[in-house]
Specification:
The chain has 17 helices and no strands. By secondary structure, the chain is mostly helical. Helix 10 packs antiparallel against helix 11.
């Protein structure tokens, strides 16, 4: 397999999986509210989703690093199919919150099979096939492909809900995920990766934890970037899902599901723009940590302004700007982490990084959901901006450590 084919396969998987998953992203908050949950319980359900990611990140990391990235991806797809159908059943029966919490945690399990494994599959495959491009560019292409698929899926899901009901996009999502499983089964092969020998589950998990600490939190080049993740990850999830009811509130028609889908589509469009600009920005500015700090500060200002505007059109534009900044930041962060993680532990450390982000979401999402319950969506966006700003000092430490390490190297190694 050539490097071009590895990249095409990765982009195909991104498109089919994102297109399927995003069918519900534009209306998920409205779906939960329609099922009888309050605003606070809606974001608490999302918090249980992220709690599931925290609990299952390490065990599923074992699968990716010892059995294979492809196996991990297929298991994730199968799990998402089942949990999507369970969500539909809970909505139809107006189930109690405890069941939403359980199924949301299982939904998190599905996504933990993806986290780290897909990126690691791409990077290993590119390295094994002699890829001579930059990782920033490869991840940026994935970002743009994901944005295009998300735009089509989220807008389509919103329109479908408008024409039928809020449950139909979930049924369609399950069918599309089945197609995703078939595509991955036929086209995804582990390349440039040798599965680690298995001794025992406990021993494997202990090794995973040790590798995560050694190459993650104990690695001075990536430690502070990983610790900044919980603040941005929790805010990004709230910012996206709260936009659905908030924009409908500003629009004046809370039953316009197509508008909610459009809001998610706008974020997808911003993701395309952000992905397209990421490699260009990286060529102009070689300081990846500096790019991350600038994007976080700028997006924090934008999300704070979103909390005080009263115009639907202005809020829509601000949502697009916020999404663009976050999307431009993602490939840069991915490339930075991957450049400092050994291949054998890549999926493990990336999963651990995702775990830290999810852990932040477990606390931040219900906090912001409760804030919206008490004060409204706008003030909760102001709180979001303050929480996100807490990531900046950590990135400042990462930048200082990076500069210190570079300054201590011989000139030949800095080139």
């Amino acid at each position: 397999m050539t490097a071009d084919r590895v990249l095409r396969t990765y982009l195909t998987l991104v498109v089919v999986s994102t297109g399927a998953s995003s069918m519900i992203w534009g209306i998920n908050t409205l779906f939960l509210l329609d099922a009888g949950l309050s605003i606070g319980k809606t974001f608490a359900a999302n918090a249980f989703f992220t709690a599931g990611m925290v609990l299952f990140e390490v065990p599923t990391g074992v699968v990716a690093d010892t059995v294979g990235r492809r196996t991990s991806y297929l298991l994730g797809t199968a799990t998402l199919i089942g949990t999507t159908l369970l969500y539909l059943v809970l909505w139809q029966t107006h189930a109690p919150f405890v069941l939403w919490a359980v199924v949301s945690m299982l939904l998190g399990l599905g996504f933990t099979f993806f986290s780290g494994a897909t990126e690691a599959w791409l990077v290993d495959g590119l390295h094994a096939t002699g890829y001579d491009g930059s990782l920033d560019a490869a991840f940026a292409k994935g970002q743009m492909a994901s944005g295009i698929a998300m735009m089509g899926g989220s807008i389509g899901g919103g329109v479908l809900a408008q024409l039928t009901n809020l449950g139909t996009p979930y049924a369609v999502r399950a069918l599309l995920l089945m197609a995703t499983f078939v595509v991955a089964w036929r086209s995804m092969r582990d390349i440039g990766f040798t599965p680690a020998p298995r001794v025992s589950v406990r021993g494997e998990m202990a090794g995973i934890v040790r590798a995560s600490l050694r190459h993650g939190l104990l690695n001075r080049r990536v430690r502070w970037v990983m610790l900044a993740g919980p603040f941005t990850a929790g805010v990004s999830v709230y910012g996206f899902y709260a936009a659905q009811p908030y924009l409908l509130e500003l629009y004046g028609h809370t039953g316009s599901y197509a508008i909610a889908g459009l809001s998610a589509g706008i974020v997808a469009g911003a993701q395309i723009a952000g992905g397209a600009s990421a490699s260009y920005v990286s060529r102009l500015i070689h300081d990846r940590i500096g790019i991350l700090i600038g994007a976080i500060v700028a997006s924090g200002v934008v999300i704070a302004v979103m909390g005080v505007v009263t115009s639907f059109g202005v809020a829509l534009v601000l949502l697009m700007v916020w999404g663009t900044l976050f999307a431009a930041m993602s490939p840069v962060r991915q490339a930075y982490l991957n450049s400092h993680i050994p291949s054998a532990q890549r999926a493990t450390v990336l999963s651990f990084d995702s775990l830290l982000g999810s852990a932040g979401g477990v606390v931040i999402q219900p906090t912001l959901g409760r804030s919206a319950d008490v004060w409204g969506y706008g003030p909760a966006y102001l709180v979001s901006a303050g929480i996100q700003a807490l990531a900046v000092p950590f990135l400042g430490l990462a930048r200082r450590k990076s500069v210190e390490r570079t300054a201590g190297q011989p000139l030949a190694l800095r080139a």
